[in-house]
Amino acid sequence: MANAACLELYNHQLTTLQGDKINLCDYQDKPILVVNTASKCGFTPQFEALEGMYSKYKDKGLLVIGFPSNDFRQEPGDNKQIGDFCKMTYAVKFPMMTKSSVTGANANPFYQQLIAKTGQTPKWNFYKYVILPGGKEVYAYGSLIKPDSAEILDKIKPSLK
Description:
Blueprint: E1 13-15, E2 21-23, E3 32-37, H1 46-57, E4 63-68, H2 79-90, H3 109-118, E5 128-131, E6 138-141, H4 150-156
Parallel strand pairs: 3-4
Antiparallel strand pairs: 1-2, 3-5, 5-6
């Protein structure tokens, strides 16, 4: 059911690995860093930088959201295994959504919108999207760009409180 006060890009109810619900409409006035993740990838250590950014900037408005996906055959676990891995290996506290597809016809609806808005489909794990408040500006970054790179921070920091 659509929320009339919510912008289309944010009109999603997401479910975390722990079963909690997140209504993206609650974050449409904040910067959001979205990343597709995998536990068995060479870029998996980026969890550390993602968690560092979340803990440093969450009180200033930043939302970091992880979307585990097996689209690149590097996330074999189920939701519980993924949650345990993230917590025990990287002490991840930022919201991690339930495992879903982020590419192709089966991509989850939120990712379909991110892809349509940027013209960029994730090419590998740890592909990042920065959504600035109001969703008018959405930027895509490849896996090689670190989450805490100047390139990403320069986009996010002006929107922090």
